[in-house]
Amino acid sequence: MATTSEGLQFSADAEGQRSTTRVNKAVYAAALAGVRPEAAAAVAEERAWRKRYPKHVWALTEAGVLQPEYALRIAQDGLAAAWAQCEFVRGAQALGLAEAMQQPLGGQIAQIELRGQGAPTIEPWSLPYRGKQLRGAELREQLERWEDAGVIEPSHGQALRRLMEHPEWFDLADRTVVLLGAGSEAGPLAALAHWRANIIAIDLPDAARWQRITSIVRAGNGRLIAPLSQPVAADTPVEQWVALAGANLLTQTPELAAWLLGFEQDLDLAALAYLDGAQHLRVSLAMDAILATVSEARPATTLMYMATPADVFAVPEATARAAMAQAQQLKPMQRLGTALVRALSGGRLLQPHIRTLLTAQNGKRYGIVDGIVLQQGPNYALAKRLQQWRALLARAQGQRVAINVTPSTLTQSVIKNPALKAGYDGAKRFGIEIFEPATTSALMAALWVHDLRCNECAANPAVVLDNPLELLMEGANHGGLWRNAFLPRTALPIAALMGYLRIG
Questions:
Q1: Nearest to 175, CA basis, from 265, 300, 303
Q2: What CA–CA distance (Å, rounded) separates 217 from 184?
Q3: Reading across the β-sheet that carries 302-307, which strands appear in turn?
Q4: What top-level branch of life does the organism fall under (predicted)?
Q5: For 428-453, what is the HEC assignment?
Q6: Domain spanning 110-312+378-388+399-410+434-466 has what CATH number?
Q7: Which terminus of the chain has a lower count of CB atoms within 10 Å, N or C?
Q8: Residue 298 CB coordination number (10 Å)
Q9: For residues 233 and 438, what is the distance between their CA atoms, to the nearest angstrom?
Q10: How many CB atoms are located within 10 Å of the residue 327 CB?
Q11: Could you give the C-alpha distances from 151 to 103, 145, 323, in angstroms and in order?
Q12: Domain boundaries, the chain
């Protein structure tokens, strides 16, 4: 997005440097300081941050697992620190992020509507999967196969079966959904456009991008509301306004929040935008500023996130035991091969995933899974952590929040990284399923509908959880990462080698 010094930026240090390592360490240290001072000190003293940051993310999760009240304290302090590390720059003026969000410029965003031209009826939900469209008994059989293979959590299958029993839930004519990063490759736009949703789409100004977005909407039965850089007549043909469509999350952050607050109806906000490296952390903070600002003014706002499995999570005891059992059930030749690889690598490769269970203050036992991939970097990890934190706080404050772990998906951002692409190609040798974007998109759009409509799910703040982190456990489709015998990043090099050699 923005490559200049305008818009949301990390605050500069005394030498004028905007170091993301400094930002990362400051946020994690602040998040831990109130609950684990020794862990906060370890963050501050860490000298090899880009290699060792996973252990500090693990410390955050462990603290929230053992003492449930810490999960919210960590989220609150971490988000406050992240905002404090930012400033919003316009010309020669730099404001704190919170202050800038209260000072939007006027007259920045116009809008236009586009209605879908497809059939008004809503077809029964089905899942595109490996060249087929699964529905009914065939879909139920696939869910069972995934559950048996440990690809999805039981709560994910349960949610999808519940959706099949309630086809009426898919009529979203009563919802106004805001997609921050509407063109996201694995996002829910295509599904929502066929479920009569009112869609406020926010993405970068780019005629080709908006041509794709409008084509998707026109093929469906929903309604699109698009931001424009200048007003046009309501009957202006699409081809004449796509070049004016779009807005920049990084440079128009306050204006976008103010524009959204101008809508009278309650909003469902989805944080979908993705960028590479430090840019992803910036855009995640920009989305957080918009979500927080709108939520504060409109408490009925709902939030939606697509959580990555390449993160650290607390998991139920049954899931943790399944991963431990996987390690114990290796065949003799697999044990021998594992021991050999582990020895030759000095213990770095094929490490056990879950070694022990943790007994929390609430008396329940949990495991911790660590799916972090070092190649994705600490900025990506912090960006996703910010989303977890906002989800936990928003739910605690009474908002409905849909945050579901999304399977590893073969998107363009993965394909262009040779190491990740090779690792994904070889992942099936370790029991990991990598999903196509169309399948992921359909699954996560459906789960969003489930979490908006279902009153017995964790997304509903009225449902009592024993630990706030249980919100992140429900509905997960991790592709098998959570239940795998090996710590994923210690298996990735072997998977990548197999992928390069096309073994399996």
A1: 265
A2: 14
A3: 110-115, 223-228, 198-202, 176-180, 268-271, 302-307, 401-405
A4: Bacteria
A5: HHHCCCCECHHHHHHHHHHHHHHHHH
A6: 3.40.50
A7: C
A8: 16
A9: 35
A10: 18
A11: 46, 9, 12
A12: 1-91, 110-312+378-388+399-410+434-466
What is the reported pTM?
0.94
For residues 379-397, average pLDDT: 97
- Asked whether the beta carbons of 362 and 495 are under 8 A apart, the reply is no
Exposed, middle or buried: residue 291 (CB in 10 Å: 0-12, 13-18, 19+)?
buried
Q: Are 484 and 325 in contact (CB under 8 A)?
A: no
Q: Closest Cα partner for 181 from 269, 258, 61?
A: 269
Chain-centre distance for alpha carbon 33: 26
Helix (H) or strand (E) holding 227: strand 223-228
Which of 80-94, 174-188, 335-349, 417-431 shows the lowest per-residue confidence on average (mean pLDDT)?
417-431
The pair of structure tokens assigned to 394 is 């928003």
Spatial CB neighbours of 213, under 8 Å, sequence gap ≥ 6: 182, 183, 189, 201, 203, 224, 226, 245
Dump pLDDT digits (tens) for 319-364.
999 999 998 888 777 888 888 888 988 988 999 999 999 999 999 9
Query: Closest by alpha carbon to 225, among 201, 248, 245, 206?
Result: 201
